[in-house]
Amino acid sequence: MSSNMSYWQRIAGGVRAEMARQRKDANQLMEVLHLSRNSVYRRMNGDVPFNLNEIATVSEWLNVPISAFEFDPRESRIAA
Questions:
Q1: Looking at residue 1, what is its pLDDT?
Q2: 7, 23, 27, 68: which could form a disulfide with 76 (CB 3.0–4.6 Å)?
Q3: Is 40 helix (H, G, I), strand (E, B) or coil?
Q4: pLDDT score of 2
Q5: In the chain, what are the helix, strand and coil shares in percent, each to the nearest 5?
Q6: Residue 47: DSSP 8-state
Q7: 38: part of which helix (H) or strand (E)?
Q8: Is CATH 1.10.3130 what the domain over 7-64 is classified as, yes or no?
Q9: Whole-model pTM?
Q10: Contact 52, 78 (CB under 8 A)
Q11: Which residues form the Transcription regulator BetR N-terminal domain (predicted)?
């Protein structure tokens, strides 16, 4: 992914890519995260960062390691 993207935009891109590979959609993610459609889309677009609990939940749901989303805690601050 492009280096001029923010850390959280890269995370969102990783989530979108894995969801596409598994043919999962935002409606399913809404149910998994217990968030509104708007909240899910803002996270998927990288406008609002996923928090650590959300990333862990998504990782578990997609059955991939968190590192699949380019997760590197040295590179960013964790969203609260």
A1: 45
A2: 7
A3: helix
A4: 46
A5: 60, 0, 40
A6: S
A7: helix 37-44
A8: no
A9: 0.79
A10: yes
A11: 16-67
